[in-house]
Automatic annotation (TrEMBL):
This is Putative minus-end-directed kinesin ATPase. It comes from the Eukaryota. One of its GO terms (molecular function) is microtubule binding. It holds the Pfam family Microtub_bd. It comes from Lupinus albus (White lupine).
Length: 190
């Protein structure tokens, strides 16, 4: 009988321990269910935010794509109009750049660089009528003209090259007349 009593005590103690363990597991299960519910709510909020961000991103990409297409259309139209203006100015343009005289007594003396590309040269060794020569160019650059001034007139042609049009710029003149200086721009001051 004592043995039965001992078994009952052990069983009661085990039942009590199991009951405590059951209560601990039950509490942990409730905590896990609450955590699961909390994580589910947070996940749904994040999913909603992600969907909203994704929709905003999609609309911004569409807007940016439309803006890029419009930009390229405007750039192409601008390029065509720009080159149309260059064509209207004339396909062949002649500029004259007068080199400063190196000698104190030059054979030909420049009399006048006029507006709109006119140039008048006086040759003192000839008569008044034959000694005056009048030339007309698109533009005349005097002896004091800088490389910047020359570049200002050739820059539109250079831009046309960048747009894919054919352009030829060449310098013509006798030896020592300043062709290389005009085309090369020593000192890179443009």
């Amino acid at each position: 009988m004592r043995l039965i009593q001992c078994h009952r005590t052990c069983i009661g103690k085990c039942t009590c321990d199991q009951q405590k363990l059951f209560e601990i597991h039950k509490k942990e299960l409730l905590d896990l269910k609450a955590l699961k519910l909390k994580l589910k709510v947070e996940f749904e909020e994040m999913q909603s935010q992600f969907q909203s961000f994704f929709n905003d991103l999609g609309s911004q990409v569409q807007e940016m794509s439309a803006n890029a297409l419009e930009y390229h259309r405007v750039v192409e139209e601008n390029r065509k109009l720009y080159n149309m203006v260059q064509d209207l100015k004339g396909n062949i343009r002649v500029y004259c750049r007068i080199r400063p005289s190196f000698r104190a007594s030059a054979k030909n003396i420049m009399d006048s660089v006029g507006e709109n590309g006119s140039l008048l040269i006086l040759d003192p060794s000839k008569t008044v009528k034959d000694g005056r020569k009048h030339f007309q160019f698109n533009e005349v650059f005097g002896p004091t003209a800088s490389q910047d001034e020359v570049f200002k007139y050739t820059q539109p042609l250079i831009r046309s090259v960048m747009d894919g049009y054919n352009v030829c710029i060449f310098a013509y003149g006798q030896t020592g007349s300043g062709k290389t200086h005009t085309m090369w721009s020593f000192g890179w001051n443009i």
